[in-house]
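User: hey, got a sec? need Probable tRNA sulfurtransferase folded
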Amino acid sequence: MQYTEIMVRYGELSTKGKNRRNFIDSLGRNVRKALHDFPELKVHANRDRMHIMLNGEDSAKVMDRLKLVFGIQNFSPSIRVDQDMDAVYKTAVEMVRAQYQPGMTFKINTRRSDHKFEYDTNEINDMLGGQILDHVDGIKVQMKHPDIVLRVEVRLNGIFLSSETIQGAGGLPVGTAGKGMLMLSGGIDSPVAGYLGMKRGVNMEMVHFFSPPYTSEQALAKAKQLASTLASYSGSVKFIQIPFTEIQEEIKEKVPEGYLMTVQRRLMMRLMDAITRKRNGKAIFNGESLGQVASQTMDSMIAINDVTTLPVLRPVISMDKTEIIKVAEDINTYDLSIMPFEDCCTIFAPPAPKTHPKLDRARAYEERIDVDGLMQRAMDGITITEIKPGENYMNAQEDVFAELL
Ligand code: ATP
Ligand code: MG
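Assistant: Yep! Here you go:
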């Protein structure tokens, strides 16, 4: 069908009282950003609905993008006709026929914002229902749970018909919760944590620690590729890479093996604290899940959180690995995450890290290294890039891919 507009219903934002305008404006901006390469589109973000005028753009492609935008409950592709009942009949019959299968039932649901139109909603429901019954063989009316709901909206600028409702991504518009910084490794969990944070409206920047030459170019490319996948949910993301080699080498040399992991994590957290404050972020996000590995116990969190007073948010904290994997598959990060490029933590991981490190010991061992100097040099080595959806960072690694597959 040649649709004229997509009608978008807002999610939770309708309950947000006086912040509503802000939410709607953010959603409007995010939708425009997600659809920036469809030049003919016009987006009108009104108080209770958003209307996207297609002006000839491909509705299927537009809807594929819309499905990823947080803050949308659902949407319906619609066709506009003039305020003329014959035109309404013709389009309505075509729409229902396109969906009809033997045995299906339907109902008509009319809303009217143009109260001057010559028929009221009940009259329109009856007249149009009669037309459908006459022209679609075998179809029956059913008020409760019909197979097809034909929605009709009489507005000043025409009459809009739709018969499909497509589920949106839910959540809140990205940006409405402020800025957060995700610790993005190359693993399965942190991209899922990032996605869940973005879903609650966080404008997420991606921070990746890398340790050349111990970690490869591929490992870095993989983290960027994950960032690009997450960027589909916000239009673009900042990717912040922090060199971690010198810190890891120094810790390896000066800290007893049982506390290598804890002290490394403290340094990561210190750097997260510094970069988050510098860039006006409000919280640190990571992919920790309680009990999953040695560093993810509550004692470990006590020993690591000690270095920051910012909130450290862990969206996947209570999820099972299988639940995390399911989300990773849904958001298309899983296949990337399981590619076997070592990240900086695996390489310096001691064979038996302390599962219940002591805070005072962690502090004492950390004093053996030059925290300020190491941090300063790491901060000086930071690079920041803007990453967009659909970019390909793994291209250069094609040969490696070929071997893996
Ligand atoms: P993931 O699957 O996200 O890598 P994991 O189960 O492997 O998680 P760890 O390796 O212990 O867990 O890391 C815990 C968290 O620390 C990660 O979820 C991530 O948020 C952060 N992290 C680990 N390595 C890095 C890195 N190189 N750069 C940025 N953050 C990291
Ligand atoms: Mg990991």
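Quick note: The chain has two domains: 5-167, 179-404. Let me know if you need anything else on Probable tRNA sulfurtransferase.
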